[in-house]
Amino acid sequence: MNTSLLKRLKSVNVSFIFSAVALALSWSSLKTNQTSVIVGQRAYVAVENAQVYVKPLVSIATSAGTANLRIITCSMVLKNAGNTPAKFLNLQAKITTPEDWRVVNADSDRQRPGPIGPRSDRPWTFSEAVSLTTRAATESVDEAEKVRAWHEYKTSHMPLEAKFQPRPQVYIDFTLTYEDVFGGKETLTWRSSEVL
Predict the structure, then answer these.
(1) What is the CA radius of gyration of the chain?
(2) Rounded to an integer, what distance in angstroms lies between the CA atom of residue 106 and that of residue 112?
């Protein structure tokens, strides 16, 4: 009698162990499948064809002299290669200009792009106005005249080694944060530049 009870208890213990192992394997499989669905369906955003342009905007007469305004524009394509939409949460753009330029309005987040759908491209343009300070404000407003005068000076007066000195550049360092439908947040960082 005691022997059959002992055999029953052993079979119950073995069954319980097998059931517990099966439950653990099922739970692990469920978590793996959930992760696979999220990875396969989430948004993957990239930036393509980013180009910076610096163009004259307007010259304004002020009490301190003439303020020459320029517009810095960066156009690009935002590409979502994922299977769910992406919502952009935050944009930071740090503009680095030559020392005699000053950024007029540095509120970059107001230009944050709107949501982008799954497997789609969206053109996006970022613009900021900059003003030239007193040293640069004395320059000619006529761009064609400045280019002509520079070319003339470079070809007739500059020593050969000075002709190949690096020209000033404008840099824009972007940080763009987005969120997908699963609540995952990702941050894109990139730099765009233009030689003046």
Answers:
(1) 31
(2) 13
Q: What are phi and psi of 152, to 5 degrees?
A: -65, -45
The confidence score (pLDDT) of residue 2 equals 60
CA distances from 87 to 93, 113, 125 (A): 18, 9, 17
Long-range contacts of 106-113, Cβ-Cβ distance < 8 Å, separation of 24 or more: 112/88, 112/176, 113/78, 113/88, 113/176
* DSSP summary character for residue 146: H
Q: Based on the structure, what is the number of domains in the chain?
A: 1
Range from 27-36, 108-117, 162-171 that averages highest in pLDDT:
108-117
Q: Which two tokens stand for residue 170?
A: 């404008």
Q: Which domain holds residue 170?
A: 42-195
Banded pLDDT at 9 (limits 50, 70, 90): low
Find the CATH number of the domain harbouring 105: 2.60.40
Instruction: Report which of residues 121 and 37 the model is more confident about.
Output: 121
Query: What are the tens digits of pLDDT across the range 44-67?
Result: 999 999 898 888 776 666 565 566
DSSP string, 156-186: HTS-GGGGGSPPPEEEEEEEEEEEETT--EE
User: Rounded distance, CA 110 to CA 91, Å?
Assistant: 8
